[in-house]
Amino acid sequence: ANASLFAKLPNQEPIQELTVSLAQQIAADPKFELIDGICESGTVDQTFTSTSGSITYNNCEISGVIFDGNAIFTSSSSGDLSIISISYTNFTVTFDGEVTDLDLVMTCTTNTTTYESDCSYNSEALGIDGRVYTVSDSSVTGDEFSGYTVEATVSDPDNGDVTISTSTAITLGCANGQPDSGEIIVSDGTNSMTVTFIDCTSYSVDFDGSTTTFTW
User: Fold this and answer.
1) Nearest to residue 35, comparing CAs of 12, 16, 15, 19?
2) Residue 62 and residue 33: Cα distance in Å, rounded?
3) Does residue 31 register a pLDDT over 90?
4) CB within 8 Å of 190: residues ≥ 6 apart
5) What is this structure's pTM?
6) Which residues contact 99 (CB under 8 A, 6 or more apart)?
7) pLDDT over 80 at 196, yes or no
8) In this structure, are residues 196 and 183 in contact, taking their beta carbons and an 8 Å threshold?
9) pLDDT-derived band of residue 159, with 50, 70 and 90 as boundaries?
10) For a Cys staple, 164 with which of 47, 132, 151, 152, CB 3.0–4.6 Å?
11) Which of the two residues, 107 and 137, has the higher pLDDT score?
12) What tens digit of pLDDT does each residue of 87-131 get?
């Protein structure tokens, strides 16, 4: 349950959702057995030891997203803390017929008693427009009780850096997994946009002093 809640954080790409869920699965089950049956179609093969392993996705479809390639991971533990590092190299993600090539490295530290996690990652993706997008210094911290905080820098090859942060922790108290409170700020250093989650049915977007409220 914790892994699925964590995976539903807003603004995460499918590969990030998969990686965070995988990291928490490994933390919860050192034998890595929970990866079995993850694909709705296609296959996934795995090899592992007590501290490392690899997972090969072969046309593996999860919620309409198709993954192909290898994920290499290592694990270690210290007391109640489980530390997982996962890397994807020459990995492809296909969504709505669009293929993205991806290199990504993520490290997650999970408290195996409370399931509070702190994940950081850096990634580089070749978009369908031929441009390379970079996400750096990204982290997600928290748990389902206190809420989650997010920080990231996204580098666009033409428009420069955009930072993403939470001014108020995001909580996921809705039955459908959507956020019911919290605030995200997106800024390019000159302009900023604030997204505020009001309740389970609505959220607002403030841009350039103008606020608009939307319903889910």
Assistant:
1) 19
2) 17
3) no
4) none
5) 0.53
6) 92, 93, 128
7) yes
8) yes
9) confident
10) 152
11) 107
12) 887 788 888 888 877 777 888 888 878 777 777 777 766 665 666
pLDDT of residue 205: 93
Q: What is the rounded CA–CA span in Å between residue 175 and residue 189?
A: 36
Q: Span 2-12, mean pLDDT?
A: 33
3-state secondary structure the chain: CHHHHHHCCCCCCHHHHHHHHHHHHHHHCCCCHHHCCCCCEEEEEEEECCCEEEEEEEEEEECCEEEEEEEEEEEEEECCEEEEEEEEEEEEEEECCEEEEEEEEEEEEEECCCCCEEEEEEEEEECCCCCEEEEEEEEEEEECCCEEEEEEEEEECCCEEEEEEEEEEEECCCCCCCCCEEEEEEECCCCEEEEEECCCCEEEEEECCEEEEEEC
Residue 210: partners with Cβ closer than 8 Å, 6 or more residues away: none
Q: How far apart are CA 194 and CA 70, in angstroms?
A: 36
**Partners of 103 in the beta sheet?**
124
Give the count of beta carbons closer than 10 Å to the beta carbon of residue 172.
22
Least trusted range by pLDDT, from 4-13, 20-29, 40-49, 91-100: 4-13
